[in-house]
């Protein structure tokens, strides 16, 4: 059986797609909310700056300093380890709420996606750490993955799904 090992470039492409999807969902969520406050706008601007920094470091790798990469690494581990799961929770709740007839399917797909959601982030930014305390810190940031499951708006008639997520 052949092992399929993705290259660093492929993981970077997957991570870039995740960044763009998170940005689009954040913009859509901001547009659809009735109230637009300073916190929401600040969150969007901060996200745009981090995404811009990611693409700057990625495409100017030869001109970019090691400090820029390290700043990007730790911002990504700190911010996106929890933000990707929150964005996925928003999408999941939207699908569950608006398409109730497929609720079990959405929950199973959400759980399956949670298993691989942070893999690109872990491989790109935590995989090449060499010092044990930095690895421990990265694992701590990446451990945020399963927290939002209890916030899924699963209907009360599917009690077995509540017992698994809650």
Q: Strand tally, please?
A: 0
Helices and strands, in order, run as HHHHHHH
In whole angstroms, how far apart are the ends? 38 Å
Low-confidence stretches: none
Going by helix content, strand content and strand pairing, the class is: mainly alpha
H/I helix tally:
7
**Quick one: overall form?**
globular
For the sheet with most strands, the description reads: none
Helix content: over 70%
Describe the structure.
The protein is mainly α. Helix content is 72%, strand content 0%.
How is the secondary structure organized here?
Blueprint: H1 8-32, H2 38-59, H3 66-98, H4 103-116, H5 119-126, H6 132-142, H7 159-165
In short:
The protein is mainly alpha-helical. It contains seven helices and no strands.
Descriptors:
166 residues, 72% helix, globular, mainly alpha, 0% strand
């Amino acid at each position: 059986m052949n092992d399929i090992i993705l290259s660093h470039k492929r993981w970077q492409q997957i991570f870039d797609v995740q960044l763009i999807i998170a940005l689009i969902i954040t913009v859509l969520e901001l547009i659809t909310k009735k109230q637009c406050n300073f916190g929401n706008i600040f969150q969007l601007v901060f996200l745009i700056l981090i995404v811009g920094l990611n693409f700057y470091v990625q495409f100017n790798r030869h001109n970019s300093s090691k400090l820029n990469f390290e700043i990007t690494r730790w911002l990504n581990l700190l911010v996106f380890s929890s933000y990707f799961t929150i964005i996925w929770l928003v999408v999941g709740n939207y699908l569950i709420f608006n398409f109730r007839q497929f609720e079990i399917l959405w929950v199973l797909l959400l759980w399956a996606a949670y298993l691989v959601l942070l893999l690109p982030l872990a491989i790109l930014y935590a995989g090449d750490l060499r010092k044990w305390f930095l690895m421990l810190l990265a694992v701590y940031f990446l451990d945020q993955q399963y927290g939002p499951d209890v916030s899924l708006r699963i209907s009360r008639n599917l009690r077995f799904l509540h017992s698994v997520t809650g």
